[in-house]
Each structure stands twice: as C-alpha cells, then as structure tokens.
Amino acid sequence: MSEKIDWDPIRALARRVIREGAPLVLDDDVRALLRRTAREVGISDANAEQALSTEVGALELLRESSRRITDGSNRLMDALHRMYRHQKAGDFDSARQEMRDVLSVEVVPHYREVAEGQLEDLEDEP
Asked: Locate the DUSAM domain: which residues (predicted)?
C-alpha cells in the first residue's frame, strides 16, 4: 500500500462503540471510514457493503476490522521481536521463519507488506 494508513479514527470509533457502549451512528462519514478500513484490513468491498446494509452488520464490520488491526499488530510485533533475537544470535533461518509464519496467517495487507519486506531484507543473509 503506497498510501499512509491512519487507524486512529477507527480505533476511536471502536473504543466509543464497542468498549463504551455508544450507539453506532451510520452517517456518511462513518460509512466511509468503515469502507476504507475494511479495504485496509483485507475485507472485500462486497462484504463491507453487505455488512453496511444493516446496523448489526455494520457493528460486526467494526468489530472485525478492529480485531484484525489489533491481532495483526500483536502478531507482527511479537514475530519481529523474535526475528531480531534470532538475527542477533546469527540464526537467520529462524529469523526468516518468523516472517514466513506471519505471512502464513496474516490477512491485513499492511502487515503482510511489513513481513514481506523483512523477509526480503533477510534473504541477503546467510
């Protein structure tokens, strides 16, 4: 993805709606935010549009988008930490495997790009 990702608005919406119990008001701005975020986390446009056709679906779309952002971030950060430890120890095969493991399960394009970039950087190592 060449564009800068800003997940602060979706995180704020999720905090208000999911954690604090505020109602999800589906105005044009919220719909646009949910569509954009769905695309950024690997949810198809068709699935996002279907979800946005009902309030229950829109809430589930918010939950799923938020979950993908959080889970993907945690997974990637944990793997990067282990990868750097392996690199420092000179175990480049294990370092590469950390990124392959992320790529085997990650659905968020941004996190996949980060893992692919790290794996590519490691290809120059023995």
From this structure: 6-122
